[in-house]
Amino acid sequence: MQWRWLALIPGVALIASTALSVLCSLVVPRAIQSRVLRVVGGKVVSRLFSFAARHRKSWAAQDRVLAFAGPVALLAVFGTWLAGFLLGYGLILWPLDHLSLLGAMREAGSSVFTLGTASSARALPTVVNYAAAGTGLLVVALEIAYVPTLYSAFNRREVLVTLLQGRAGVPAWGPELLARHEMGGMLPRLGGLYADWEVWAADVAESHTNYPILLFFRSPHRLRSWLLGLVAVIDSAALYLSLCPDTAPIEARMVLRMGFEALREIAAVLRIPVELDPRPSDPIQLTEAEFHEGIARLMQVGFGMERSEADAWLHFKGWRVNYEATALTLARVLNAPPAPWSGPRNGVAEIEPLALLNRTPDDPDGATPTRWRRG
Q: How is the chain split into domains, by residue range?
């Protein structure tokens, strides 16, 4: 029937759009938006898992469900690409080989998956079959090569996040990071930590914008999160600069800048609106009472402050306004653990990190906040 030839148009369009999606996602080293990744991975799969997680009461139960979101999204994207090519080549073979639609799809599937179970003796359909076989082979090879790249970036991301567990608690919290370094007499070493996290933030910004599916891969520990780790580090840097402007290391400013730039780049991939030039006087969601809770933790370990709490609050607001809205939106979208200073999450109560106590034979309860060593 003559009207079958109209199927060539959507068939060619589907193959071209799918090929462009594969090219942008797997080959071009740039954060180019792929509709398949954004819709299938970022919306359909992640929202289904978020919906399923909401019906679990505890955070542990929610995290067990959410742990599968990233891998399932990855497989769904791979399957969508192959299905797009199969359907596109099937629509082309339908009029060319005078087959039924089901027969055309069977022949296209045989070629795309290089099975060789169905073929044609006609010249033009044979060319299409060879093209379909080459496409399927190339896409599967790219997908196989893509997985090690993803997990390499994932492993690089998780190393510093895991190391942060002993420095900032789980879930990570900015004031706890400063408190533990004060207890250990390690405040002079914070400059090195901030320098490491500045490089880490640049690496995550590059890898997670080029491969946005990584955003939905969760840390192995249910209370660890790359996002919470970054927010804790830049919160601690902002807090340090606000409380001790004369002694805070210059690296604190550098990690703050790189930190909120990384958050903004990642938010752009998810199409989250970002205020690029907020004013220091703009309101933030963190309350002054929550800020004083963080200061109380620092005072508990004898952290020295060069400014009063009231003055420090104004300066801290001026720093946090640059990244708070972006960080809290990302935490909600990515279902990060409900840590202090990170906003509400799925009706689960905020989980505070356990305070690290200096237990000794003379003070087994750790009641006296002494340092572990003098630095």
A: 2-146, 164-333
